[in-house]
Batch of 2 targets.
Target 1
Amino acid sequence: MKFATRAIHAGQDPDPSTGAIMTPIYQTSTFVQESPGNHKGFAYARGKNPTRMALEKCIASLENAKHALCFSSGMGAIDAVIKLLNPGDEVITGNDLYGGSYRMFTKVFERMQIKFHFIDLNNAENIRKYINSNTKLIWVETPTNPTMQIVDIAACAKIAKESKLWLAVDNTFASPYLQNPLDLGADIVMHSVTKYIAGHSDVIMGALCVNDNQLFEQLAFIHNSCGATPGPMDSFLVLRGIKTLHLRMERHCKNGRAVANFLAQHSAIEKVYWPGFENHPNHKIAQSQMKDFGGMISIVLKNANLEKTFKVASSFNVFSLAESLGGVESLINHPATMTHASIPKLEREAAGVVDNLLRLSVGVEDIDDLLADLNQALI
Ligand SMILES: *Cc1c(COP(=O)(O)O)cnc(C)c1O
């Protein structure tokens, strides 16, 4: 079945005991057994919960994956992937990562003797220079956050296969509607479900999707053993939100395109980062691996110091100044002091995250109101 149909129906059958069309919120920690070990497939809710299971089947279906696991946050999902590794193992990743991923890699896992190489992934061939006998994992984000660089997933997958490495893709910015990394050869897809998949800024959740049965068993073991599993109420909220993922994404893309084109010709703007522009360095790759270009846009303000940038960031009426992205409402964020504050200034600026950069998550409001709001804030 097609994406829109799967978004609404995958993993969900009417409740067998009542016929309820929506999967009930199984708000229970444990399940009664007839005799020891004799139960209906559910024993303790950290391991398995029916509401969560329906959501996992739905997310797996949208990523064309055999298996999915939901976590209590996106970071919980990333944590589980890195726990596949052992001390001495090495990871090759981008120099333009989500700030929280960078913080976890450098502040938590480097202490446990896992080594990370943060490199320029605009040309995937760069990866080869950093591969050695300890390398186990390539971790990429595309589009990247906040400068919207595009990483060639199929090219990374080819390198990973040749060297027997895992390729994991953080697919949060694209959502499964725009891009399906497993189809391009990735081994693991990670989502901050908090963002586009849930879509309503009311849940924190993460997910991993895989095809390989053995890799799934390893991740499921870490999932249950380490315990970053989400509750049934949050699973229900995401099941509800996911039903409109395709509709929301269509509008995010349409509004995103209009906002990007408007900003590109605005006199207060020095630069607009959006992969849909033909002069974006990896536009062709974006075109080939994504269905459309999404609603995430970053801008560099012309001749603006930190004070001026703060003033602009605080003068919106429809856009809200907040961390996060992917909800129905438009958000504006100042990466240097908000989402990316944990990255040292020199590294941050080298990756283009300068003090006068603002990131927009273009929502699904009326485009006329969004453009009017930008226009009044940018003067
Ligand atoms: C938000 C985000 C995460 C972390 O997810 P949480 O749900 O906030 O834990 C990871 N990667 C990207 C690209 C994100 O935007």
Target 2
Amino acid sequence: MTRDDFMALDAADTLRELRDEFVLPESVIYLLGNSLGPLPRRAIERVARTVETEWGLLLSESWNASGWWDLPATTGDRIAPLIGAGPGEVLVCDSTSVAIFKVVSAALRLRPGRRVIVSDAGNFPTDHYVVEGVADAFGYEVRDVAEPLRDDVGAVLLSHVDYRTGAMRDMAAVTDQAHAVGALMIWDLCHSAGAVPVDVTAADFAVGCTYKYLNGGPGAPAYLYLNPRHEDAVNVISGWHGHAAPFDFEPGYRPAEGVRRFASGTPPVLSYGALNAALDVWEKADLNALRAKSLALTEQFMDLVDPALKIVTPRDPAARGSQVSIRHPNGYPVVRALVDRGVIGDFRAPDIMRFGFAPLYIRHVDVFDAATLLNEVLEKESWRDERYAGRRLTVT
Ligand SMILES: *Cc1c(COP(=O)(O)O)cnc(C)c1O
């Protein structure tokens, strides 16, 4: 297939207009939406309105008049359809790390007598760090997922889509395995929501971030899903925003109904403005069409790159998220050379190059151009240039 063939695919793409929703510099092919999604144009106006009108003119009246108080719940209800959850089941709050602390602690308290948390040492480090912290604080034991599941396990925390390889677990099957030993299942959906269809309903709890595929902006708050069958779950960070009657200023804590009890403190209102603008775009997107496009983009990229490369992302569409990862001993300088040529991907130690294909705004021709440049950098060994040798700090 030629470059023109890829341009023809874009011309026929029913999702192509969604790209116009985003600020994307012409000079770059942004394959890092799995780390920080681009700026939705609507967010510029929305954040300005929140600042100028809601904060500037209405001042503290905005807690009611502008719906600030309810933002964690109302924003959660907008994320719910993206993960197969219902209204009142998702709360937007905190960072993913804090949300993990809350749900792991809550799950273990629902399984008294069981002292073991199963975690994946290969998971994104913060997940594992927080699990270790919960275990230290409350006297639990951490066991790796590679070991057999036994009936002393209270909770299992895993990522649905692996942040390094893009491999996707069978959510329903793994959840069944956890339930079969009486453990509760917690899913991390950071690389799932907005990337692949999710049916969270079998899970007991789930968490995810909103600044990757959902494009909520840097530092946008995370979301937390509570299965309604656990309406009695306990939030160990029992702050006033999770209280049943926060403005009664009662001396004792009484949790709110449902997922709202997982709120703790005052929400970062400006960030919710940007996130809600990003969610407007999701309302226009057909999730099945997006998944089909995502699979096409990742497959085309795998087909176009040098066949000698070691692709670690599964070829099986049922086991693949929305990124392609390639193992290469010189992955770091190769990624630096590509960034210099306008192809923005990233590197994960020790040797993985990651390329995210967000179907909302990545075009087929971007896939062609990125693969062509990657092949060229490898063939000409342009990555050997000493400019690409020194390490810089890279972010998630
Ligand atoms: C991105 C990501 C996080 C981010 O955690 P924060 O607390 O939002 O910084 C956590 N877990 C996984 C699996 C991720 O991919």
